[in-house]
Design goal:
This protein is α/β, with parallel strands linked by helices. The protein has 2 domains: 3-103; 108-198, Cupredoxins -  blue copper proteins (Immunoglobulin-like). The protein is 48% helix and 25% strand. It has 2 helices and 8 strands; from the N terminus they run ααββββββββ. It has helices at residues 3-27, 36-105, and strands spanning 108-113, 125-128, 131-139, 148-151, 154-158, 165-173, 176-181, 193-198. Strands 2-8-7-4-5 form a 5-stranded mixed sheet, with no helix packed on it. The chain has a 3-stranded mixed sheet with strand order 1-3-6, covered by helices on one side. A hairpin with a 2-residue loop joins strand 4 and strand 5 (154-158). The longest helix is centred in the middle third of the chain and has 70 residues, at 36-105. It binds copper (II) ion. The site of copper (II) ion has 5 residues, from loops. Copper (II) ion (CU) is lined by residues 145, 182, 184, 187, 192.
Length: 199
């Protein structure tokens, strides 16, 4: 029997006793008389039992309630965790965008110019990060020039051939050593070439 049942048993016994003793007291003038202490003791015991079981039952209820509450809070935590997960995945979604901008930011633009008077570039060495590499080329001279990117003698990309103007050439480059040069016959041999280092 649990405390709740015991509480009801004690309560009912108390109520029944009260009715019985009241009826007895009304019907028999001498009741309770000498039995009074025992009657009083009986009621004290019943009230004591009822109170005790009521308190115990209340404690059980409280524990049950706490269990329910902690269950509810677990559920709330789980929900929160889900929300955090969603937040994280949302952040993950956002994280892809900076990654995109990062790959865009690895697109590097280099400046290269032809010498206005000689068959030469203004540098023989260029450096870039891997990714999309663009060489903005300006040719102030009236001599035709272009700029090509090669590796191991293989042309990767080449610009237009221009005089007194600007053009550009782009290529997706992995880390490595490349050559940039002017493809106009004789110009590279005359010194219009250099090393493009991608790292
Ligand atoms: Cu040239």
């Amino acid at each position: 029997m649990d405390n709740e049942t015991l509480f009801y048993v004690a309560g009912i016994a108390l109520a029944v006793s009260a009715v019985l003793f009241t009826v007895a007291a009304l019907r028999f003038e001498k009741f309770p008389g000498r039995a009074a202490p025992f009657v009083a003791l009986w009621f004290v015991v019943l009230v004591g039992c009822a109170t005790t079981f009521a308190v115990l039952h209340a404690q059980d209820e409280k524990e049950h309630e706490e269990a329910t509450l902690s269950e509810a809070s677990h559920e709330a935590e789980a929900e929160e965790a889900e929300v955090v997960d969603e937040g994280a995945s949302a952040e993950g979604g956002n994280a892809e965008e900076p990654a995109k901008t990062e790959s865009e930011s690895t697109a590097e633009t280099l400046e290269l110019a032809a010498d206005p008077a000689a068959i030469a570039f203004d540098t023989t060495s260029l450096e870039s990060k891997p990714g999309k590499v663009t060489i903005d080329f300006s040719n102030p001279s009236s001599l035709e020039h272009d700029v090509a990117i090669e590796q191991g003698g293989e042309e990767i990309a080449v610009s237009e051939t221009i005089t007194q103007g600007e053009t550009s050439v782009s290529a997706e480059l992995a880390p490595g050593t490349y050559t940039f040069l002017c493809t106009v016959p004789g110009h590279a041999e005359a010194g219009m070439e250099g090393t493009l280092t991608v790292r």
